[in-house]
Amino acid sequence: MQKIVTRSAKWVGSVRGLSQRCYSQLGLATSKKVEDDDDMIINPSMPHFDYSPPPYNGPSADEILNKRNGFLSPSMFHFYEKPLNLVHGKMQYLFDSNGRRYLDAFGGIATVCCGHCHPDVVEAIVNQTKRLQHSTILYLNHAITDFAEALASKLPGDLKVVFFTNSGTEANELAIMMAKLYTGCHDIISLRNAYHGNAGVTMSTTGQSIWKFNVVQTGVHHAVNPDPYRGVFGSDGEKYAKDVEDLIQSATSGSVAAFMSEAIQGVGGIVELAPGYLPAAYSTVRKAGGLCIADEVQAGFARTGSHFWGFENQGVVPDIVTMAKGIGNGVPLGAVVTTPEIAQVLKRRNYFNTFGGNPVCTAAGLAVLRVIEKEKLQENAHVVGSYLKERLMDLKNKHEIVGDVRGRGLLLGVELVTDRKLKTPASAETVHIMDKMKAMGVLVGKGGFRGNVFRITPPLCFTKEDADFLVDVMDCAMSKI
């Protein structure tokens, strides 16, 4: 049998299952073996983590799943054939009801920014909850103003007026409405393969049929996606941007309300827009009287490492920026930041959000900003993310199933294909590998329109040791295909 040795792993002679030693190293609280058809199984060592969660005494996974099927929306889905019952989290790790530890390389869909249950964020939430949990913005409270001031200081130019919401969808809905009011136009341009939310207007701007219901969606035009891997113009951003100009001339009155895009598409499969695209597209849209909206729901808050915001990687300054997810490390919080001039449009009528800007969530948001700075998480995202991307590129050189490795910082994607030349999506193989990785203690996300992209968006406290473990586990799982 072939013997393969990786950086932090050794092959262990084991027929049809992980050995007891493997389970011990992976943090399992059980001696049950995992059945496997391979002759040999790699045994990566999970990085040491000096923490044990308290015992879990709650309902079983089967009991929870039965209630979920009986009382929650049938549209809800879960990862894995046997869904995980996660009950505890600490920094970059999650624990199931049996006390087994998992390396979280998904971060609750790029949401857990500082780390699970980061003590500084927890303390801010608890202290604010003890003082005042809710009052509405009809009264004064310093939590919202302190956070708004700190958040505005992280944005360039005249982006200094903040509106708080409860989610990214809400933030994008508000941003689009403001653009329409400010310009007096109604046409919106977004990108194919984009995802901006699942409410009325944001569903229209989303460019994937799997996220769109058969409801009336008007006034949105989807430009050709500047995808360096699958796009017709490769990495030539300016050629893709020409389609925005063509859309304005052919599908609108010649004037538009806004252009909305992510700098790196998250749900779409971690697709980083072709270099030079946003400067050219922004210029065209502004000539047509439109505003430029940057959706930073997944790419923001230092995740790309090289910059605090994703759009900065393309050297542009938007007119409106939307954000959520990492802003609160897990609490329901979103925001829209724009200029004082554009913000004036909401004075034409009453605009109100009952929970937007509540003291508990904004206290958490301020704590997140302070942790990012104190623990230099942007620098860590850059250093560890660059290292991880290099190691993933090594996997691409080793495994034909890896078609593309892309992204920045700790916002990375690995696209799997069955044929590199034809770029045939390896959708079934992606699910299989994902299950194998879970069995060995690593959780990753899955995305892309074809469901064949691993989304790697861990907490920003991820270490090089974590990166090695993730890659070694992925290497092992791919070796079994």
Description of the molecule:
- By secondary structure, this protein is of the alpha/beta class.
- Helices cover 34% and strands 17% of the residues.
- The protein is built from 14 helices and 20 strands.
- It has helices at residues 20-25, 61-71, 107-110, 119-131, 142-152, 168-183, 200-205, 237-251, 277-287, 340-343, 359-374, 377-398, 427-439, 464-479; strands at residues 9-12, 41-44, 86-90, 93-96, 101-104, 161-165, 188-191, 220-223, 258-261, 264-265, 271-272, 291-295, 320-323, 334-338, 402-408, 411-419, 424-425, 442-443, 445-447, 453-456.
- The strands form 5 sheets. Strands 6-14-13-12-9-7-8 form a 7-stranded mixed sheet, with helices on both faces. Strands 15, 16, 17, 19 and 20 form a 5-stranded antiparallel sheet that branches. A 4-stranded mixed sheet has the order 3-4-5-18.
- It holds the Pfam family Aminotran_3.
- Keywords: Photorespiration, Pyridoxal phosphate.
- This is alanine--glyoxylate transaminase.
Radius of gyration: 23 Å
Strand composition percent? 15-25%
Largest sheet: 7 strands, mixed
Shape: globular
Spatial strand order of the main sheet: 6-14-13-12-9-7-8
Tally the helices.
14
- The chain-level structural class is alpha/beta
Give the helix proportion (percent range): 25-40%
Q: Could you tell me the number of beta strands?
A: 20
Poorly predicted tracts of residues: 1-39
Average pLDDT reading? 91
Q: What is the distance, rounded to the nearest whole angstrom, between the alpha carbons of the first and last residues?
A: 16 Å
Family: Belongs to the class-III pyridoxal-phosphate-dependent aminotransferase family.
GO molecular function: alanine-glyoxylate transaminase activity; pyridoxal phosphate binding
Protein name: alanine--glyoxylate transaminase
Catalytic activity: glyoxylate + L-alanine = glycine + pyruvate
